[in-house]
Design goal:
By secondary structure, this protein is an alpha/beta fold. 44% of the residues lie in helices and 12% in strands. Helix 4 (105-117) packs across helix 13 (358-368).
Length: 480
């Protein structure tokens, strides 16, 4: 192929110029986008928590991608109509389904700064300031949950990647040749199954450990399973405990499980994606004791620290386990020079090229301060306890155990008819109405509703409104 001519190069440069808008155009685009975000945020308090999914295709771009581009105002109008509106509004103060995320405005600004600079946060000598920030945030997370100075970790895309990263490290440390048994309850998050599959341990001996009346792992059942395996010549490898289950928010007895794992030399992993970071507040510390004794931890700052989705963390009590598992190199990425910022995130997790995630956590911590996060967490636990007490006193309703953290399971007991079928209809009606959004689950095969209180925007007025909606809707469904 002949070399390009100067004229061809100049023409290509001119045609590519829309990729590099000038200062005035950048200011115009930024103002349009900021106004769009302001309008979205301004509607959260009054708008519904769920809208019809069909809105996503109420308008079509044909073709979806044009050669010459579109007017930015038209593009933002499409986003407002077909992206922002349809489905669940997870940023709503009345979104209490699944485990709510956050969407801090400070984090959005942090993502803008991270994307604008495009610093490479995987490699210490390439982006020393970015890597220092990544390590500073993971060190702070480790201190929050009580891990020692030997701990290390990395920010991940979420709890699934954090759990996978931890399980692979546990495999390399204690189960290189396979055959070790895995212990967890029926309430363990399904991403653990995916992680075991990807880690090549889907066929490992699996022991399902019974739960107690508060949906927590039974230490007695765990001990019996471990001792039975030892007697049968099966090596215990991995215990997966939950610091906040999805269904009820229950916290397994972490200190007792830690002692049992230490006694038998079993790797102790805690899935704290939902609840582990409640260690920041006193109410959380009261139920999470023992989490600091985990060999590895999965955390989700995009849950309990209210960050946008895509922010998880894997931590290891002894950071060398992550380094031994993930550290690698190649000729083209030899260090560019010595740094004093600590290890590269690429040596602590599976990812090499990665988003500069730390800025979305570091910036709100700097601007809002740690105390604001601590107060918000205490408020969420307090709201869950308030909701539990109100629903327990409400005629016709049955509640699950008092919440360890901020998830409450409950259901309605109609005077006649099938209880499970009624509660399936009740949750469907609440979701379709859309003012609030709760989710459903099954406990011991029975249908329950879940109220998961975790948005930093959710306050007492929103809980009172939720209770009013539930009381009214239950009576409406019962009258049909």
């Amino acid at each position: 192929m002949p070399a390009a001519t100067r004229a061809e190069l100049a023409a290509w440069q001119a045609n590519a110029s829309p990729l590099e808008p000038g200062a005035d155009e950048r200011a115009r685009l930024a103002a349009l986008v900021f106004d769009h975000a302001q309008a979205f945020l301004a509607n959260l308090e009054k708008g519904p928590a769920n809208r019809p999914r069909a809105d996503a295709v109420s308008r079509r771009l044909d073709p979806e991608f044009t050669e010459g581009g579109r007017d930015p105002s038209d593009v933002l109008s499409y986003i407002a109509q077909c992206v922002d509106r349809p489905g669940i509004t997870t940023a709503s103060p009345r979104f209490m389904g699944y485990i709510p995320g956050g969407g801090l405005f400070h984090s959005a600004l942090g993502d803008f700064l991270a994307a604008a600079s495009n610093k490479y946060a995987g490699f210490a000598s390439a982006g020393p300031g970015a890597v220092r920030m990544e390590n500073a945030t993971t060190d702070w997370l480790a201190r929050v949950v009580g891990l020692p100075e030997s701990a290390a970790g990395a920010l991940t895309s979420g709890g699934s990647m954090a759990n996978l990263s931890a399980i692979v490290a546990a495999r390399e440390a204690r189960d290189c040749d396979g055959g070790g048994a895995v212990y967890m309850t029926p309430l363990a998050h399904h991403c653990i199954d995916k992680a075991l599959l990807i880690a090549g341990r889907a066929k490992a001996p699996r022991r399902t450990i019974a739960i107690d009346g508060r949906y927590r792992m039974s230490v007695e059942a765990l001990e019996a399973a471990i001792e039975s395996d030892i007697a049968a010549g099966v090596r215990p490898w991995l215990v997966v405990a939950s610091a906040g289950t999805v269904d009820t928010g229950s916290v397994d007895p972490l200190a007792d499980i830690a002692a049992l794992c230490e006694k038998h030399g079993v790797w102790f992993h805690v899935d704290g994606a939902y609840g582990g970071l409640f260690m920041l507040c006193e109410e959380g510390k009261a139920v999470l004791g023992g989490i600091e004794r985990a060999d590895t931890l999965a955390l989700d700052p995009h849950k309990t620290l209210f960050l946008p989705y895509g922010t998880g963390a894997v931590l290891a009590r002894d950071g060398r386990h992550l380094l031994d598992t993930y550290s690698s190199s190649a000729d083209y990425i030899r260090p560019l020079g010595e740094t004093e910022v600590g290890p590269s995130p690429a040596d602590l997790s599976p990812e090499l090229t990665r988003h500069f995630r730390a800025m979305r956590l570091w910036l709100p911590l700097q601007i809002a301060g740690v105390a604001a996060f601590r107060a918000a967490q205490s408020e969420k636990i307090g709201l869950a306890r308030y909701f539990h007490a109100r629903m327990r006193a409400a005629a016709g309703f049955e509640v699950g155990p008092p919440p360890d953290l901020s998830v409450v399971a409950f259901r309605y007991l109609p005077e006649k008819g099938d209880v499970d079928e009624f509660n399936e209809r009740l949750i469907a009606r609440v979701q379709a109405e859309g003012r609030i959004f709760l989710s459903g689950t099954r406990l011991a095969g029975r249908a329950f509703l879940r109220c998961a209180i975790l948005s930093f925007r959710t306050h007492l007025d929103h809980i009172d409104e939720t209770i009013e909606v539930l009381l009214r809707t239950a009576k409406e469904v019962e009258a049909e």
